[in-house]
């Protein structure tokens, strides 16, 4: 169990993350929010990378900073990964594994090969990193985080730069890891959350706005999501407020919108998506900084 109790971070310019409390058990948890919402600050606090201004984060009843100092049990993948260009993936991961200590060289090699296969880098494991694409470097970062993770795995935008096939592979890897660990996935890709996570956390302007099921988040747009088909002439005269999408069909244009009232005499209520619930939640928030 990962527990955050009144966890917050304040800088001279104001609150990056206002005090919040969370309890996360084993499983895959999504983290959503616009840029500047405090997501990366929360991830660094939960990984023990920075000291909180208020409260603490506990893993198995001990501060995450104690785990961080011991170099074990927490795997953390930041948005930006730096790998020495002359190192191969295998050399880089063996070096990372040696810093953790407590295992034989043979066991370290076995674990490195295992995570390389998980992220589909085994075939390029001995190439210098300067030959890696951005997506390959990202996968190497995921492999390093998996290697370090005991009870907690934190990944920040892991699917950025990956093609659809590799994104699906990574979702599978994270789902497997979540069977025995707390896995926290921060992303702007709502498809990754909807396909993989049963719980989601939403931050906005440094505040906790929502923590619950993905169905509950979609529910914010319940009875406010509409769909209808219209002609091109009528569509051109429509106001854009609340319109989510407009897709051409053989018979006209299929529209979808968020609104408290029917946006068209022909509009019918439809089941909301995760994205629509998220948009409705964010639109309900008052403007202003976290300051």
From TrEMBL:
InterPro entries cross-referenced by the UniProt entry: AAA+_ATPase (IPR003593), ABC_transporter-like_ATP-bd (IPR003439), P-loop_NTPase (IPR027417)
Keywords: ATP-binding, Nucleotide-binding, Transport
Gene Ontology MF term list: ATP binding; ATP hydrolysis activity
Annotated protein name in UniProt: ATP-binding cassette domain-containing protein
Stretch forming the signal peptide: none
Top-rank lineage group of the source organism: Bacteria
Native source species: Paenibacillus albicereus
Keyword Nucleotide-binding (UniProt): yes
Lineage start: Bacteria, Bacillati, Bacillota, Bacilli, Bacillales
Similarity section: Belongs to the ABC transporter superfamily.
Residue intervals of the ABC transporter domain: 2-230
Keyword Signal: no
């Amino acid at each position: 169990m990962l527990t955050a109790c009144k966890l917050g971070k304040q800088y001279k310019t104001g609150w990056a993350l206002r005090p919040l409390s969370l309890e996360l058990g084993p499983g895959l948890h999504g983290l959503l929010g616009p840029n500047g919402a405090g997501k990366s600050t929360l991830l660094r606090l939960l990984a023990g990378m920075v000291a909180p201004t208020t409260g603490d984060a506990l893993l198995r009843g001990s501060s995450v900073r104690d785990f961080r100092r011991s170099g074990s049990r927490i795997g953390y993948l930041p948005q930006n990964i730096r790998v020495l260009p002359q190192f191969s993936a295998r050399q880089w991961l063996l070096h990372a594994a040696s810093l953790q200590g407590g295992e034989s060289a043979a066991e370290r090699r076995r674990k490195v090969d295992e995570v390389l296969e998980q992220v589909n880098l085994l075939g390029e494991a001995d190439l210098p990193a300067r030959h890696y694409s951005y997506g390959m470097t990202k996968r190497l970062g995921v492999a390093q985080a998996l290697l370090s993770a005991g009870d907690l795995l934190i990944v920040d935008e892991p699917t950025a730069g990956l093609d659809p096939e590799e994104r699906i592979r990574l979702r599978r890897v994270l789902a497997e890891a979540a069977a025995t660990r707390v896995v926290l996935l921060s992303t702007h890709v709502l498809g990754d959350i909807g396909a993989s996570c049963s719980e989601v956390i939403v931050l906005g302007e440094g505040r906790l706005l929502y923590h619950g099921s993905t169905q509950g988040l979609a529910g914010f747009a319940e009875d406010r999501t509409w769909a209808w088909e219209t002609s091109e002439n009528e569509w051109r005269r429509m106001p854009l407020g609340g319109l989510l999408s407009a897709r051409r069909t053989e018979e006209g244009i299929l529209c979808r919108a968020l609104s408290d009232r029917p946006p068209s005499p022909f509009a019918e209520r439809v089941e909301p998506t995760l994205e629509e619930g998220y948009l409705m939640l964010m639109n309900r928030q008052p403007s202003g900084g976290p300051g």
